[in-house]
Please model this.
Amino acid sequence: MDEEYDVIVLGTGLKECILSGLLSVDGLKVLHMDRNDYYGGESTSLNLNQLWKKFRGEDKPPAHLGSSRDYNVDMIPKFMMANGTLVRVLIHTDVTKYLYFKAVDGSYVFNKGKVYKVPSNDVEALKSPLMGLFEKRRARKFFIYVQNYEETDPKTHEGMDLTRVSTRELIEKYGLSDDTVDFIGHAIALHRDDRYLDQPALDTVKRMKLYSESLARFQGGSPYIYPLYGLGELPQAFARLSAVYGGTYMLNKPECKVEFNEEGKVIGVTSEGETAKCKKVVCDPSYLPNKVRKVGRVARAIAIMSHPIPNTGDSHSVQIILPQKQLGRKSDMYVFCCSYTHNVAPKGKFIAFVSAEAETDNPECELRAGIELLGPVDEIFFDIYDRYEPVNEPSLDNCFISTSYDATTHFESTVVDVLNMYTLITGKVVDLSVDLSAASAAEE
Model:
């Protein structure tokens, strides 16, 4: 281990693994270490015995739940936009050859106590029971405007500069009701709270276009895809990529201590009495706790069920977004469900998650609105974890620390963090102008 590296990466969470893959492909000499004896860190995937041990303190789950090894329960479950940034990163790095994806069946939104399919274009808007007749016509006009909008073609702008016009002003032009704005902003544009309404509308329009492009890619019931066997496959796929380009991996390395010189710049990492020298360190917040601050907590419930979520058209995989305003909260709640069709549970079993930014100390009460949508559950586990973000100045100490995972059940915010870190580390921007059709071989 007494060698010198360009970068040492600590932790094998998804963000760290994507970065070690990208940096290795760039030709940097990378050493990747983890104190655990498994990949994934906070975003690992557990079998049933491991899940039982984590939440029940023993590793003997009841026999009626089926074989432990048929379970791949993601601790940070998130779907991917079929046309989104993470998929572009996967194709850019050729990691798709290690993974198989399957479309997610349904995308739903919670409104006035009921669950509705999210209408995502002008045709679906006209059919949706979410809106009355006149509202449908207004929504259809708005969807057509968004579909036709091209940033580089002023003829499609209808006289509005979306870098200056707020989302609220754009929506007022079309006269949409609060409930319509709610599902467009939260279930299509995937904003986590209502701050977006007073920000430039361009971001929301781009997010809506991403949703409809992703939906069109698979002709499925949702814009989302998910890997077979769950997200645990992703960190390992990037680890393989890093290894192909000369990266070195070491799991089960206790007490990875980051070493600094008198100026406070990182010079290496020590584990088991040996020090590996390096110019830069990339890590999750748990490796440098004195350089991060707590910014919130995520409450989550994990349920094992023997049926799909009611009112979702028997979807075997689905996302339901519960907008903040519908629940009287400060941010949205998310329901995620996957099943044996994605090989994450034995035949006939479904795994559902309910997650939200914690606003109280009682996840069972706080998540009730989402849990009530699930119907009867075989087992349910509750958990709260802290979220951290870095407070250091990377240009001074050469430490690049990722932000903890948020409560959302989709990946777009996660990848933005990774790409920003890549630019900080290398001074370059990842070129993601890839041909998305290249991914078709990796999709089922």
